[in-house]
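Good morning,

Attaching, inline, the backbone tokens for the sequence recovery test we're adding to the shared suite. The designed sequence is right after.
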């Protein structure tokens, strides 16, 4: 009886404070739940995809989907919502976000939602490769990648995620942006 109660209400007590990856330092600027609704993660309110599109986000020719993949490790309800919504495009996903000029730390949130080790992405910012092998995870596993130091010079952060196979979609669940300390 107690285990049924715990299973039913565990979402209220689970936490995403142990998010996998580097813990962001600095001032939170923006979080976007790509493909989904507004959520609160690590005490910060993230914009919905729709709101972000109305406030400087562009994702040309992207598809949006929602999945029901069980996270490993698990997290609270908002973390599950964010990681189970996705924007994707065959082979190359481009994302632009207006931001004031300056230095930022960029974090990319990715979950493997198809099959183990299916995705392996190259990440470019302003046309320069900043990471490779991103997203190569077991099914249901997720990672917060970054913080990648980026500089915005003309009011626009430009991100591209690329696969090297036409049969594989480039995908992303969320982005968070911080102003670095110092």
């Amino acid at each position: 009886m107690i285990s049924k109660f715990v299973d039913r209400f565990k979402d209220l007590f689970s936490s995403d404070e142990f998010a996998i990856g580097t813990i962001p330092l600095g001032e939170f600027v923006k979080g976007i739940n790509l493909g989904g609704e507004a959520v609160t993660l690590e005490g910060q309110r993230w914009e919905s995809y729709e709101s972000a599109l109305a406030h400087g986000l562009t994702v040309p020719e992207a598809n949006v989907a929602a999945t029901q993949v069980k996270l490993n490790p698990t997290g609270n309800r908002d973390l599950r919502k964010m990681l189970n919504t996705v924007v994707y495009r065959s082979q190359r996903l481009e994302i632009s976000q207006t931001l004031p000029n300056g230095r930022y730390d960029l974090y990319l949130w990715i979950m493997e939602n198809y099959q183990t080790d299916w995705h392996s992405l190259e990440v470019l910012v302003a046309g320069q490769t900043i990471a490779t092998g991103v997203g190569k995870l077991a099914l249901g596993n997720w990672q917060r990648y970054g913080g990648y130091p980026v500089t915005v010079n003309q009011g626009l952060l430009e991100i591209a995620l690329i696969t090297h196979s036409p049969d594989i979609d480039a995908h992303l669940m969320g982005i968070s942006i911080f102003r670095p300390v110092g």
